[in-house]
Amino acid sequence: MSSTIEYIIKRTGESVPFDKARIFRAIEKAFLSTNASDPLAVSELTQAVLERIDTSTGIAHVEDVQDTTELVLMDNGYTSIAKSFILYREQHKRAREEKILKAISDKQLSVTHSDGTTSVYNPHDTKSVLNKIGINLNHIDPHLLLDTVNRNVYPRIPACEVEILILNAARDNIERHYDYDTLSARICLNQLYDQCLGTGFNTPDLEGLYQSKFTQYIETGIAETMLDPRLADFDLETLGAAIVSQNDTLFQYLGIQILSDRYLLRNRSKDKFIYELPQWFWMRVAMGLSLQETDREARAIEFYTVLSNMELVSSTPTLFNSGTRHSQMSSCYLNTVDDSLTHIFKVYSDNAQLSKWAGGIGTDWSNIRATGSDIQGTNGESQGVIPFIKIFNDIALAVNQGGKRKGAMCAYMEVWHADFEQFLELKKNTGDERRRAHDINTASWIPDLFMKRLQNNEPWTFFCPSEVPDLHDLYGQAFEQRYCEYETQNLSSARQISAGDLWRKIITMLYETGHPWITFKDPINVRSPQDHVGVVHSSNLCTEITLNTSIDETAVCNLASLNLSKFITKSGELDHKKLRSIIKIGIRMLDNVIDNNYYPTEEAKTANLCHRAIGLGMMGYQDALYQLNIAFDSQAAVEFADQSMESIAYYAILSSSMLAKERGHYSSYSGSKWDRNIFPQDTLALLEAERGEPLSLNPSSQLDWSEVRNHVQAYGMRNSNVMAIAPTATIANITGVYPCTEPAYKNMYMKENLSGSFVIINQYLINRLQALGLWNTGLLNTLKLHNGSIQSIDEIPSEIKAVFKEVFEVDTHWLIEAAARRGKWIDQSASTNIFTATTSGRVLGDIYQKAWKMGLKTTYYLRTLAASQVEKSGVEAVEACSITDPSCEVCQ
Asked: For the whole model, what pTM was predicted?
């Protein structure tokens, strides 16, 4: 990695040695143009520019250098000189464009082809490409795009660069209409087709080539030692014939770009060419999930169809690894650390292996003795749990996820632990760095007793786990009784604090650092289907998984998400027939992950094969509300959340039971809540009994559950747990819908990925405005001015404003209400981000107390408006997980 710039890339694409004197002269001319002269200032500004330029590759683009120069001048107060520099750039840009346009007119610009030959650049060829790829896109302006391309070509431009110019021109106009997004996606597909098939988009031979070359793709993947050799045993001709190339057009630009950048297989050559097309990708995933099926081809086609239609999508580890030589397809791992040096370091080793194979990890640290406690054998004093979590943090950095991204881990701790206040500060940017953990997530594990004492303004007692060894395994009334007993025993580690003071510290840290997330121990354990064989000690990386852990078992969960937008009929109803059918297929796919999976540790293998936990979730909930014309902050939305999740739960549980009839129930089924005819909705009464107070939650149901209950009683369940709503930020982007169950972040914002930045705009909003004849350039500019919000735009009708509120315009209580309604049907949990415009600690505290009162099991990130404020549409929107830094993508 270079620490200096060695080469500069000119606008022609030519690379020349870097000369810092050119920066000095450019700044000097800007000074002189304003009748100013200050050689010392020019020298210092030049140095400032050099220090700000990214030197990681040793190469910089001339435009980036000039952009940096502008910023340095502005940041240092040289506003008038910066303006002069900007004008200078604009004048030279116009001069270059005029020169280029004249050269095009005179047929003096040449294009260099891949074989080294050249030809005259012909704008009609570019126009022909636009017409061919842009067929049936009525809202694009080919002349605008052609003019943009013509102004940016340069002498001897490589032919592949012309297509990139066309893509950039289309992408830069996405804000005008989503047809430009469709065009951008098609251009990306055109590039892939050319590379893999030697043909292009909208060509007569595309379908045939797509199907006929499928066998060659599989053979190439096996030869490259990437694909599982067993894939060659499938009837590849039959599978190839089932491929539907037209489904590539379901991708939006962001989706196909993410797929190309990160998911499609590349060869092992220096150039790392992509050799996997999108439909081959879906089929490869489907084949990997069908390896142990009796009728493999029929199942693979069934799975492929669901994936290809984007009705249900597997999580990222499954998409990455299914059908490959190392098929680690599980998303989440949860483990607990015993209070011994031997086990602590074993968990470090286990986590390194889990992280190596792209697993996200939630580790429970509540058993580790606190600072100052005795160490038997050495007569020394413990430094507490924090130094061990620091090493846990460094493992996340040292062992990346298959070379794709840094490790993704979360540390959990109970609020009675004597080191909990230090735990709260792990993410602070100040203090002793040896006691900070900036590269992991943290979460609080909160029992009901703490929340009760908070309500009653009572004291809270900290203990060292070594003095209260059974407390971590207790919950509900048993925990309360034992905790109160310990408080009377005058233990040496006992220390009291006001519950209110500790709560304020929790909320303050959550607001300032985003951590620790708030999760509730008792609702999770009381409602767990597996309460007969253990205890849930923590959740996972993204707080949607709630499975038992022990020294002998590392909990594992395998995820997939329904695309809810695909299940709304034209008449505005939930399509139950389709939902039942797709969920049945999805549950089978998830169950197959367990048997086809690669397990990095024996503890993970033991747990997964014994309990067979899976997590079916959803995405596109906001899309479904748009299709139904329902405002997110309305009672109708809450009822839809309730009814849609009830339907998903109904069919998911039934499907798992039907699979148990075919394959047998999971090993630890006997004695489970399923076996006792206690379903998730029944456990609300159990939670109320344990708390001794009612939940603020409507317990009603809409469906007759007798069919499901009778089937489970007759055949059992194939999977101990079947539902969990993951964040889905990445797979939602691939499928072109809003993530999980969240409202739209913004109606317009700038998105960044590995290929650049571009505008994301709400297509549903454009359609509504277009139908009313309101969508035009003027309204687009007004929307930009209002940063994507339509609430203050007078010409937009109030009924549209109600439906198209952005997330910070929706009262947080509606988010919690909807989450609670869904939660009553879910046997695990959901990644529930808390979005709020408030900066008040009291209001934030009330929000989380409401979540607890309504029975929520977990919460995820806190997103506040102050922390997320962005300029106009010029900054990437804040998400639970960013594409540019996808550290917790495993659940997505």
From this structure: 0.88
